[in-house]
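Thread: Modeling a multi-component assembly for a lab meeting

Hi all, long-time lurker, first post. My supervisor asked me to bring a structural picture of a complex we are working on to next week's group meeting, and I have zero experience with this. I have the sequence lines for every component (727 residues in total). Could someone generate the structure of the whole assembly? Inputs are pasted exactly as I received them:
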Amino acid sequence: MSHQKLIPDSPLMSEGIALVGNPNCGKTSLFNALTGSRQKVGNYPGVTVERKEGFAVAPSGARLSILDLPGTYSLDAATPDEMVTRDVIFGMVPGEKAPRVLIAVVDATNLERNLGLVLELRDVAVNTDTEVILALNMMDLARNRGVELDLESLATELGFSVISTVAVRGEGMEALLQEVERLLQKQPEKTKRSLNRDFLSKKPSPQEIQERFDEVDRILKLTLSQTLKPSVWTDRIDQFVLHPFWGFLFLILMLTVMFQSIFTWAQFPMDWLKQGVGETSAWIGGHLADGPLKSLIIDGILAGVGSVIVFLPQILILFLFILLLEDSGYMARAAFLMDRIMGKVGLHGRAFIPLLSSFACAVPGIMATRTIASRRDRLTTILIAPLMTCSARLPVYTLLISAFIPQRQIFGVWSLQGLLMLALYLGAVASGLIAAFLIRKSVMQGPRSPLLMELPTYKVPSLKSVALGLLERAKIFLRRAGTVILSLSVILWFLATYPKPGPMDPVDATRPAILYSYAGKIGKTIEPLLKPLGFDWRISVALIPGFAAREVMVGALATVYSIENQESNTTEDSHEALAQKLSHHWGLPTALSLLVWYVFACQCLSTLAVTRRETNSWRWPAFMLGYMTVLAYLASFITYRIALGWGI
Amino acid sequence: MPQSLGQLRKGQSGQIVSVQTDEAGIAQRLMEIGLLIGSHVQVLHEAPMSGDPIVVRVRGALIALRRNEASHILVSPIG
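Re: Modeling a multi-component assembly
Sure thing. I ran the full set together rather than chain by chain. Output:
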């Protein structure tokens, strides 16, 4: 039998390796341990499933390409994730060759179930030239809980190599890679058999599944001499965390801490970034001659991109929480606790964390819906995520509330301003739930997908995994800011700056320069449409750049009301000046109407862009924009009319 | 006398005697996650207020599922 000669340092791109395993078996930790930061994230063609590829360096020096396939309980796939795993293994994904070696990752503390998938993979190995290795992960935990496993006889029973690993400590990686290399060097012993289509499409009957696990039990009887004791710590923690009263209270406490951290801890880095952007602006202002280029850079690019980058700390902090919760195992418990309540409006328990994330920013929130397996449940969650009051709305809320709501106390305790803010938040949540309910009754009908979810044993979160996760999300966020927001900011800057007023055109308080620009003309054109809501042409104009990113609205209003942004003024000063001006120009009905508009309107291109990416279609972002605009219009209209009617 | 797992209360346990399916093919999903005939299953937790969904221990793992999903599993109660 001849062996292929491995040339060191040459990428073995044509021979793929993939990690397969149950959810929660530590597959991702193993992937990270093998590939480190040499990872590439993309999408599989035609589906919204993440494709994770990484590169490991084998003991011989060769580069190995490894795919981290979505976790699955069996090859009989029920969700898009699981279908991808099955399709990749069988070579049914266009452009993706079937992997030559499958590393079956098994949680050694969960053998009774994990081995089910392994036996299915054995079938694949027997019928094709795919090779299988078993990576017996979490062996340290298993030993601590009393497991005694005869690895050699297990390997004999299964018919392939068994390597014990502790992925979080990087143990066993070399042995694993060595074995992978050995298998890659093997010439296929059987002629390459094209996979039998019947073999693939046959859905196993309950009888067959029962037989499969009877075989698992038989193998374990032979090889396992001491069975697993339950995890003491997990049980103890769950007594508290899943307690009907204390557990629920703990969840509320968790949420409070999360929100606090976003609004307070994020403040310091956010202010630092704001200052940085401001100083860059000032520096460029000092070094460039006045003219279109300077205006483009400062008012267009820096203003647009800068206002979005400022949110990076908030987003990272929220994600830090979410990743820690996920990695520790708590998140599954949160989904369990919330499932019933969310079910009342047709949402899946797993939608809880993505919707929570959306309170900081809907963009990572929508990305987080990937944990929701069913397309219908996932889409519903994505569609209502932007209704959760995101942090970018706060500058507008703060401005309008401080300008129009008196600093009075109700009953000497509650601040009127604070109450209105709370009402805006709660109103948003209520509208989200109602929207979900209606969506599930119309465009997304049907029952919820099953909960059927494993609660993993608790573990101390791996800082390495969390750090890698944060890095990945930061990259995605910044890349989007750099593309969508940048191009839109430039276009909007152009529309708001040109044409400039001619030498004969009067420019004064009621006719600022922006009136003569394209944006001004568009604003004037839209004005009749928005007049029923109490919006004049200036608000209409400000809404145009405000469409790209909500925070830009305040700056746009300042421009339209000709608040000069002198270098001597701080941002707070010009905001105060703006608040003053607005309180004189607008009535309370207009202010309330604009607040309500802001609760509902989809004024965020990043949200639409990420929705398009996550749903792989233009239909859903279009629907999102459509329904939110209709909602905003109606709500604003009603608010304005009622406020006028009350004569306030 | 077999009961459905969906009917068991916190602390109760039983041995699975059969897994019924529906149009969605839920039996396969229940079995693949470890709810197999002959396995011992115990209800460990019930969700706040409504007591639904529940958390059961089966084959060494903790599984959360709704009572209507659990109703597909018939058990013969122990103790």
